[in-house]
């Protein structure tokens, strides 16, 4: 008794646990359940009544289950009584089925093997023949086969009818604990069918039809039927004929598609059986010739007609046996297989195995379901317990989720109520955005419409209305204000975009939510990406609400004002910019030096702008871009005109062709500008690397010059042809007439098509590349470039070899060839010419520096530097011999000028300048200044063409202080006296004595003292001038000298003996020996640019 109670509790434990959990939820958490604002389980009495109702329902279900079991017990007793009334054969049949069910456990799918009386099915199953048994059960290839005796199918006696029905009843009951029969295998004997009369075949067909209909009605309509024709080897010529077929075709079978009516299947049976032996007709003559046996030859000859007659017989039998009538169930034919030999007792026939494989085919879904059901049934009470627990956990999780969401809603509502005394924000700011976030959060938390127990509908509707109102009052107002501000902008592109978005809000243009959101994200900005994402979410909600509420009223005056501003810009220009913007996403390869020449081009060429050689002319301005542009121009232009019409509110239809021509003209201008910019930015690489430049120029002068390859590639992209317009019937007729016109009028020629603007602009380049007589221009240019490269190479090696490159006309010829080039190519080669000229100048300056260092510099440094009169504070004097050798007309400086600078030195300009052949001022100002000062020294100290320095000058007294009684000046042998008397001048000369000049000054004062000064040396006169104060006069040849004797002054007048004579040491004081470097600075790229 206790065990029965425990067993009952174990089986009822899932239901009991589920009931207890449900009652727990009702009693403990029932007050939290609300439906449309009403809480039905708030009272404890209501919760107790609901629990009592659940208990009553559970008790009622248990009572109904026990009552059903009590009613089933009398039926089991009646079944046992019926079994007691069975005959011996019926009881044996029942026991055999029960024994089979116990042995297999009801897990094998069953198949019924039936056939007319007299057909042996045992050999087909690999069993010995036994036609007397009512039922034999066997397992083959995972199936349970029930071989039913043929007498039960023919049913010639009433007892056999009873046995057949009892068998069907037992098979139906076995399906309750095992599996129903899956199909039927019908076995027919080919020899019996061939030898039976028409009446016998009709009897067989009718008996089979009755049995098959009973099986289909009992085990399901459409029960599968596999037909096996056995004993085919007894058909005349069957074995011999099939031997001539390939091995894979000797297993004759006809398979049909499932779920097809039998009448439709059998309509093509004769053709399909004839197709099985296809190929025997063609080889019949060969088979007859090879067969020596006359009897076998006769069977071979008669096999094909016999097979066709057998197909007709089989088709008639099956049409009768498998006929389908409305309202009567019938089996579904799946295959027909022909068994040519009997199976051995150990193995079933191959035809049977093929039929079993066919039975598996429709079970692709049904078989897994049946296997899953077989696994579920013995474990149902455990699985129900697990399912109940999972359902309880799911309900608990959903409840906790709903409770958590309601708490969050309460928090949002409390925050909104706290902010309510400050008033609802009217401008989009931090407070307004936070309020929108909270309202959106409430709407999102309450939006659980797929749950039956979701939050009440009123709260959800109210939160949605509040959120939509705030979106309209805050976000929409801010969006419109920003659009209004943008519509007062200055850029036309911004006006177009803003006007389009503004018209979208008013419903006058198709809504593009993505464009509007992107624009608002850029206009609103904000601190960080999170801020923009929040705005974007609210904007999506606003647009969704606008789609339901309708368009926004617009400011018509503002729209007309903006449209007038946009209309002021040319239509073609606006549309052209839109087309370019739309085509930027096209995948077009750029034209660049790297794409044409590869690595070699990157080593030989560079860009003046410093950009990468991988970049160049955009793909839109190449031949492929031109073709793509003209292909897409018309459809894009049509769309653009439609958008323009909608944007500007025009009612008339804009003409396509005039605008198309203007846009093409703008495109051609940009096309030309990009290619001209390409050439303007092109230059030879390494212009500042003189040691590598000759090698690069030699590469450019090759027969396969990379520059020519580049120019030919450019010519391919700049030789364009106008796009052909579509031809109509009239155009085709005119073209045909023009084609026939030369036949009638040979003197007239057709007009040439117009030349493309891009081709016409670059025509000089095309002609230069195509010219060939008397010689290609490229050949002369390459020869000139090669000569320049050799010249540069010689100039670079000249210093190391200590030789001088003689003058030549290489650069002049290169300049002449450059003048003949197209204007696009001249900047590239002018760089080469300028570099060559620079190197020639460097060579000249190097020779000049070498000559200076050998001829002038030693004398200047040894005899003049640091000596008086060139250094005023020096006690050492320059000898007159060194002075003469340096500055005389035949001196070192003048000889240097005449030998190296003859015709190159411009002495008429101030300061002196050198000619362009030596680089002008790049030689340096020190040398030019020294030469110019040397010229002044020569003019001041030497007479014209003189080789010895010398001049005469006159000194005469002017005034003298009253305290001085007399003044005396002695210069060598000459003397000047003055005693406040007549003013008489005395003439003196420079230089004085050969051993040196002596100068003595003496002034006798009234108090009897005599003040004396002395100076000696070749330059004593100039030292005296340094001690005196010189006062210029209006006459440049006259100066006043003031001599100071302890505060008392003597003023003398100095008059030059000739014009240009040196009256002081000014010309000598600034002279310095210059130093010229032996190497010059390299030419920088900026100097060439």
Q: Would you write up a description of this structure?
A:
By secondary structure, this protein is α+β, with helices and mostly antiparallel strands. Among the domains are: about 1-75, no CATH class; about 105-365, no CATH class; about 400-570, no CATH class; about 950-1070, Immunoglobulin-like (Sandwich). The strands form five sheets. Strands 2-3-1-4-5-7-6 form a seven-stranded mixed beta sheet, with helices on both faces. A five-stranded antiparallel beta sheet has the order 15-12-20-19-18, covered by helices on one side. It has a four-stranded antiparallel beta sheet with strand order 14-13-16-17. About 25% of the residues are buried. Mean pLDDT is about 80; it is low at about 725-730, about 745-750 and about 1080-1089.
Topology:
Layout: H1 2-29, H2 44-84, H3 88-104, E1 110-114, H4 122-125, E2 135-140, E3 143-148, H5 150-154, H6 158-177, E4 181-189, H7 190-195, H8 198-219, E5 224-230, H9 238-242, E6 253-255, H10 262-266, H11 269-276, H12 284-290, H13 294-321, E7 332-338, H14 350-360, H15 366-376, H16 380-419, H17 430-446, H18 457-487, H19 492-505, H20 513-524, H21 529-549, H22 556-568, H23 571-583, H24 593-597, H25 599-604, E8 605-607, H26 623-648, H27 656-680, E9 682-684, H28 693-700, H29 706-718, H30 729-744, H31 757-761, H32 763-770, H33 777-801, H34 810-820, H35 826-855, H36 857-864, H37 880-887, H38 892-900, E10 905-906, E11 913-914, H39 925-941, E12 951-960, E13 964-971, E14 974-978, E15 986-990, E16 997-1005, E17 1010-1017, H40 1020-1027, E18 1029-1032, E19 1038-1045, E20 1048-1056, H41 1066-1069, H42 1085-1088
Parallel strand pairs: 1-3, 1-4, 4-5, 5-7
Antiparallel strand pairs: 2-3, 6-7, 8-9, 10-11, 12-15, 12-20, 13-14, 13-16, 16-17, 18-19, 19-20
Helix pairs in contact: 1-2, 1-16, 3-6, 8-13, 11-13, 16-17, 17-18, 18-19, 18-21, 19-22, 20-21, 23-26, 23-27, 28-33, 33-34, 33-35, 34-35
């Amino acid at each position: 008794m206790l065990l029965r109670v425990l067993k009952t509790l174990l089986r009822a434990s899932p239901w009991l646990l589920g009931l207890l959990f449900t009652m727990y939820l009702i009693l403990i958490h029932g007050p939290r359940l609300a439906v449309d604002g009403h809480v039905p389980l708030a009272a404890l009495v209501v919760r107790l009544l609901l629990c009592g109702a659940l208990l009553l329902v559970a008790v009622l279900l248990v009572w109904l289950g026990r009552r059903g079991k009590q009613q089933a017990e009398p039926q089991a007793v009646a079944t046992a009584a019926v079994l007691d009334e069975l005959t011996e054969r019926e009881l044996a049949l029942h026991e055999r089925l029960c024994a089979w069910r116990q042995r297999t456990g009801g897990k094998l799918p069953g198949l019924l093997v039936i056939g007319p009386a007299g057909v042996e099915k045992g050999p087909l199953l690999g069993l010995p023949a036994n036609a007397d048994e009512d039922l034999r059960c066997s397992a083959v290839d995972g199936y349970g086969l029930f071989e039913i005796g043929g007498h039960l199918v023919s049913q010639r006696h009433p007892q056999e009818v009873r046995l057949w029905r009892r068998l069907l009843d037992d098979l139906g009951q076995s399906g309750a604990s095992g599996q129903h029969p899956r199909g039927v295998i019908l076995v027919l004997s080919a020899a019996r069918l061939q030898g039976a009369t028409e009446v016998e075949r009709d009897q067989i067909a009718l008996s089979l039809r009755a049995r098959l209909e009973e099986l289909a009605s009992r085990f399901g309509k459409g029960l599968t039927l596999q037909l096996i024709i056995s004993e085919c080897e007894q058909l005349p010529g069957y074995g011999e004929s099939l031997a001539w077929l390939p091995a894979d075709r000797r297993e004759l079978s006809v398979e049909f598609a499932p779920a097809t009516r039998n009448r439709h299947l059998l309509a093509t049976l004769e053709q399909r059986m004839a197709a099985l032996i296809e190929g025997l007709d063609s080889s019949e003559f060969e088979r007859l010739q090879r067969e020596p046996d006359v009897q076998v030859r006769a069977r071979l000859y008669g096999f094909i007609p016999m097979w066709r007659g057998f197909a007709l017989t089989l088709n008639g039998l099956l049409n009768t046996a498998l006929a389908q009538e409305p309202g009567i169930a019938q089996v579904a034919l799946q295959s027909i297989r022909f068994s040519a030999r009997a199976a051995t007792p150990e193995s079933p026939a191959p035809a049977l195995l093929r039929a079993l494989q066919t039975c598996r085919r429709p079970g692709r879904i049904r078989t897994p379901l049946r296997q899953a059901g077989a696994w579920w049934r013995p474990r149902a009470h455990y699985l129900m317990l697990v399912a109940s627990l999972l359902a309880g956990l799911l309900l608990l999780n959903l409840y906790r989720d709903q409770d958590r969401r309601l708490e969050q809603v309460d928090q949002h509502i409390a925050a909104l109520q706290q902010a309510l005394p400050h008033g609802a924000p009217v401008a989009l700011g931090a407070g307004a955005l936070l309020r929108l976030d909270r309202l959106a959060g409430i709407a999102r938390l309450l939006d659980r419409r797929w749950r039956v127990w979701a939050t009440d509908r009123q709260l959800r509707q109210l939160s949605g209305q509040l959120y939509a109102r705030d979106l309209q009052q805050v976000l929409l107002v801010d969006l419109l204000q920003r659009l209004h501000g943008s519509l007062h902008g200055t850029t036309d592109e911004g006006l177009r975009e803003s006007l389009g978005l503004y018209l979208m809000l008013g419903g006058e243009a198709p809504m593009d939510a993505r464009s509007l959101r992107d624009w608002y994200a850029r206009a609103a900005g904000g601190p960080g990406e999170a801020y923009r994402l929040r705005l974007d979410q609210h904007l999506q909600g606003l647009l969704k609400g606008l789609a339901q509420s309708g368009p926004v009223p617009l400011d018509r005056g503002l729209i007309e004002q903006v449209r007038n501003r946009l209309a002021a810009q040319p239509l073609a220009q606006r549309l052209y910019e839109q087309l370019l913007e739309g085509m930027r996403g096209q995948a077009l390869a750029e034209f660049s030096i790297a794409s044409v020449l590869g690595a070699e081009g990157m080593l030989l060429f560079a860009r003046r702008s410093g950009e990468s050689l991988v970049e160049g002319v955009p793909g839109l301005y190449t031949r492929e871009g031109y073709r793509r542009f003209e292909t897409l121009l018309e459809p894009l232009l049509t769309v653009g005109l439609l958008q323009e019409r909608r944007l500007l509110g025009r009612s008339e239809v804009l003409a396509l062709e005039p605008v198309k021509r203007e846009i093409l003209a703008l495109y051609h201008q940009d096309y030309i500008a990009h290619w001209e910019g390409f050439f303007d930015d092109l230059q030879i690489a390494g212009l500042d690397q003189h040691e590598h430049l000759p090698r690069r120029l030699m590469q450019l002068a090759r027969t396969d010059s990379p520059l020519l390859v580049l120019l030919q590639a450019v010519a391919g992209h700049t030789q364009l042809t106008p796009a052909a317009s579509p031809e109509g019937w009239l155009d085709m007729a005119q073209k045909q007439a023009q084609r026939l016109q030369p036949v009638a009028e040979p003197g007239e020629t057709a007009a040439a098509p117009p030349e493309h603007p891009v081709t016409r602009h670059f025509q000089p380049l095309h002609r230069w590349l195509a010219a060939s007589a008397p010689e290609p221009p490229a050949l002369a240019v390459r020869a000139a470039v090669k000569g320049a490269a050799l010249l540069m190479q010689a100039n670079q090696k000249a210093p190391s070899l200590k030789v001088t490159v003689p003058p030549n006309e290489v650069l002049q010829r290169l300049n002449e060839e450059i003048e003949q080039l197209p204007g696009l190519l001249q900047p590239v080669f002018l760089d080469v010419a300028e570099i060559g000229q620079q190197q020639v100048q460097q060579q000249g300056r190097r020779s000049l520096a070498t000559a200076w260092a050998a001829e002038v510099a030693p004398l200047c440094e040894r005899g003049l530097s640091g000596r008086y009169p060139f250094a005023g504070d020096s006690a050492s004097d320059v000898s007159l011999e060194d002075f003469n050798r340096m500055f005389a007309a035949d001196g070192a400086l003048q000889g240097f000028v005449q030998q190296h600078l003859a015709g190159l030195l411009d002495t008429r300009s101030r300061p002196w300048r050198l000619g362009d052949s030596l680089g002008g001022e790049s030689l340096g100002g020190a040398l030019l200044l020294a030469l110019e000062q040397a010229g002044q020294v020569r003019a001041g100290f030497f007479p014209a063409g003189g080789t010895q320095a010398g001049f005469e000058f006159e000194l005469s007294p002017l005034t003298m202080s009253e305290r001085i009684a007399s003044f005396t000046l002695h210069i060598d042998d000459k003397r000047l006296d003055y005693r406040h008397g007549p003013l008489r001048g005395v003439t003196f000369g420079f230089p004085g004595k050969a051993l040196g000049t002596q100068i003595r000054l003496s002034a006798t004062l009234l108090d009897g003292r005599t003040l004396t000064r002395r100076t000696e040396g070749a330059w004593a006169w100039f030292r005296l001038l340094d001690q005196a104060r010189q006062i210029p006069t209006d006459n440049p040849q006259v100066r006043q000298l003031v001599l100071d004797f302890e505060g008392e002054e003597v003023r003398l007048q100095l008059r030059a003996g000739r014009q240009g004579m040196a009256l002081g040491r000014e010309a000598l004081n600034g002279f310095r020996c210059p130093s010229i470097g032996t190497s010059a600075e390299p030419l920088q790229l900026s100097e060439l640019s």
